[in-house]
Specification:
Oligomer: single chain
Largest sheet: 4 strands, mixed
CATH topology: Nonspecific Lipid-transfer Protein, Chain A
Strand content: 5-15%
Number of domains: 1
Number of strands: 4
Number of helices: 4
Shape: globular
Helix content: 25-40%
Distance between the termini: 24 Å
Order of helices and strands: HHEEEHHE
Strand order of the largest sheet: 2-1-3-4
Length: about 130
């Protein structure tokens, strides 16, 4: 298996800074490639922070990662799945949304006994502050 390059916290902050106004409701949605970059980098940062293959986190249409140590899933539908839209994911990653609130509002679907990824969120407190992805 090919080892991916580690996510640089400055690179992640830069990608998140581009979508910050949209997340705060101050600007229109970013360009698709900018949104995709922010989602993909933040998901890779999660996988880096919580290595493993017990939980699959899906943010369609941009990316999915496997993360969290524990039993590895290799075929079929994973028993532990988290799925959400790009905006909710980025809000969770940057502390603009909390895990319990996103679940209660139905903005996140989490199934399986190990699908709670809240211990790894937020990835960054804000796009410019030090966070757990460093």
């Amino acid at each position: 298996m090919t080892q991916r390059r580690r996510i640089d916290a400055r690179e992640l902050r830069g990608a998140l800074a581009v979508v910050e106004g949209w997340l705060d409701g101050e600007t229109v949605a970013p360009a698709r490639d900018e949104l995709a970059r922010a989602v993909r980098l933040s998901l890779r940062a999660l996988a880096q922070l919580a290595p493993g293959a017990t939980v699959e986190v899906r943010v369609p249409p941009f990316a999915a990662v496997q993360c969290v140590a524990g039993p590895r899933h290799t075929r079929g539908t994973p028993p532990n799945v988290v799925e959400t839209d790009p905006k909710t994911w980025l809000e969770l990653a940057t502390a603009r949304q909390t895990w319990p609130t996103a679940l209660a509002e139905g903005r996140v679907a989490a199934s399986g006994p190990r699908a709670d990824i809240s211990p790894y969120l937020p990835l960054l407190r804000s796009p410019y502050s030090a966070g757990s992805a460093e």
